[in-house]
Amino acid sequence: MKYQLTSQQIASKVAGEIVILNHSKGAYYGLDEVGALVWDSLEKGPQTIDSLCETVSEEYDIDNASCKDDIDALLQDLVSEKLVEIID
Question: What is the pTM of this model?
């Protein structure tokens, strides 16, 4: 299973963080440095949780299980807000 950004959003970097606007809802969202790293990876193309966790683990000292849990929770939030979608 892979995740990719939807076309319903515009994002911009601000002071190392990401600010996202959901067009259809007119709502803003913010991601911290780790979330910004995940977002940057998704901007490059569809990603799996494993590939995103590998990217985060290269930058931050986190065990694999915690990394996967945290990234899964972030992705589920982004999917529920229609900022990210699941593809096969």
Answer: 0.91
